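Milestone M4 deliverable, item 7.
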Amino acid sequence: MIDLSHAEHQIRCVTNFDDLISLPFIGKINAACWTRELVGDFSEIIKQLELHENIAEIGQEELRELELSDQGQLAREILLNDLQALKNHGASPVLNLIKCYERDDAYPFFPTDVYSFHVDRSPIPTDTFLCTYHGDSSDIIPNSQAIQKVLVPEIREELRKLYGGAAEGFEAFLSEYFFDLHYQPKPKAPIINLGIGHLWKLAVDHPESQSLPCIHRAPNEITGQHRLLLIC
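Output delivered:
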């Protein structure tokens, strides 16, 4: 179950894929979830996959070639079905096996990696889809419970020092280096975990958006436990 007690009406839950893709994001609604209790052994799939770097993309043919038990085969069928459903929708899903993401240490006072609460931006109308099948899952936060980091006076002052240019170019600088996409939770802000097996659709900042983009972050991975994540 997903704890919606602090969701502030931003989340809508559905029971099938068609309702997920057709649900519009309007007003406060900027996250949709196809809630599912998945069957199968996804850990068996992970144990058979090789991970030589921090992240590896797992192709459909690689999945099909795995020798799996009945429970592993059930898990594989779910993965293949989810990938195909999103492709049929016109999306470009990828299945990633993740040890960890790259950390941003270029600006220690303002990391812009995916472990920071952030929103996605696109020049064209689109949504972000994701599902965690194994390992720790991502978090979202109500928009009213976070503040854009570039609006925090102390952070903004440090960014001005980093920029060092004419005042009229400062906002463009913030956008160019993605600083304006990142958010800071307010004190005691509720964090909503996306859970395992649920397929989510999150609102993106794009020119035709009728809702605020969904603020989300990747989890800090548990050492030795790989994540299996579908995302597009």
